[in-house]
Amino acid sequence: MFDTLRDLPPLPGVGYKPQHFAALLDAPGAVGWLEIHAENYMGDGGRPLAQLRALAERFPVSVHGVGLSIGGAAPLDRDHLARLAHLTGWLKPARFSEHLAWSTHDGAFLNDLLPLPYTDATLTRVCDHIGRVQEALGRQMLLENPSSYLAFAESTWEEPAFLAEIARRSGCGLLLDLNNVFVSAVNLGLSAEAYLDAFALEAVGEIHLGGHDEDSDEHGAPLLIDSHGRAVADPVWTLLDRVLDRAGPRPVLIEWDTDVPDWPVLEAEAARAGRALARAAAKAGGAAPSACGLTPEVFSGPKKTGGLRA
Description:
The chain is of the alpha/beta class. Helices cover about 35% and strands about 20% of the residues. The strands form 3 sheets. The protein has an 8-stranded parallel β-barrel with strand order 1-2-3-4-7-8-9-12, surrounded by 4 helices. The chain has a two-stranded antiparallel ribbon with strand order 5-6. Strands 10-11 form a two-stranded antiparallel ribbon. Helix 1 links the parallel strand 1 (about 10-15) and strand 2. Helix 4 (about 120-135) packs across helix 5 (about 160-170) and helix 8 (about 235-245) packs parallel to helix 9.
């Protein structure tokens, strides 16, 4: 049994950027929580950690990792995991999340979140790595669905079923990135609505929204790039309403990581998410919603279940 975890409220959050520090303290508006990228705060001091400590006194914080290489073929980097455990140990964040991706090979870090084939072998490896992360951190983690630009011919699982099986087998929760869903659906010619209908919403502890860039491939077909560099697109907001209608309010994050706007623009995006959450709460009868569909108090290890579904 592990330490009790703080929870995220079913409110809008934003990815923290240092240029918004003063505004967050003075006029946070609709923002009820913050997310940081873990790798930016693994040092031993300085202004970034001082600002983070000040913000953590005012806001629940979710830590989002980008460098663990959960899907990598090699064992997890012990030094990286130890630094991450140190960060979460003193910060005591409400959530920790990582990506269903890999970014390391033969000791090299590739600075990208690369896709995986959805096979039983991949499933076993990812669940093993998640188990090691959860044991090291003493907390449940969330796993994020990727943005996809290709599909592997060798995959034997559909992505929603693959993620659901990871959650069932490892005991982790899921982070549902709706821009990733939309980007993948357009790029692969799939239905975003069908994807969400098949998604294990009961395991979702956090929802992400972000912007994307529009391009075309060599055949002239639409190609979307998950850039996090502009406002959330209207079709992604529509997907959010669809999810909240089914699942009820959840913590919703606005991700804006490149071409970061002035604070009023980012806060306006958060306020729009707040209105979507308010509509969902009203449809649910106006009762105070639970913070998420997970039980956040403890992580008690992998669930003991039967064999894998093929």
